[in-house]
Amino acid sequence: HRLARTFVRRATRAMEDTTDDAARDWAYLTTGLYAAGRGQWEEAEFRLKRAVELAERLGNWRRWHESSGLMATIYTMMGRWEAAKLVTDQLYEKALRHDDMQGQAVPHLAVGRLKLRQGHFEEGVVLIAIALPPFEQIYDRVQMTNGRGLAAALYARMGAWEHGQRHAEQAPRLMAQTSP
Predict the structure, then answer these.
(1) By the 8 A CB rule, do 92 and 70 touch?
(2) What are the tens digits of pLDDT across the range 81-91?
(3) CA–CA distance from 148 to each of 29, 66, 107, 175 (Å)?
(4) Residue 87, Cα to own-chain centre: how many angstroms?
(5) 27 within 8 A of 17, measured Cβ to Cβ
């Protein structure tokens, strides 16, 4: 983690020294992701909010989508259900406006994760079933793996072991195809 912490310090200094909003947006996104990975939720939230704001100002839909999706995940992990739902609703609305199939699927996956954490397993399964086909159509292996793992967890919590096992068996195969 020492090298990563050095990157965060340098990226933060660089953000203060530059007027290049695209560079600042990228730095906020990557350092926010690092903070989330360390479980530093408030720091991640601060950095990702800045990334969302900058991406919005720049009109960078892809970066806005990535940053907002991470915000929804962080709010879910923090147990801030209403904030997570608000962000996923915004993601879905904007994806519809941009006719972005992947962007429409990501909120279903995020809310499915939220339903797992809330104990609403049946609702989560329905959302994952909606989310997976677009990922399969565009062959997004990372999201497919994420969705299959989430579906396996939801089915297991419901006691539907056969369905859960079927999803669980697909996740490692997808991971092997994604890894170098």
Answers:
(1) no
(2) 899 889 989 98
(3) 26, 20, 15, 11
(4) 11
(5) no
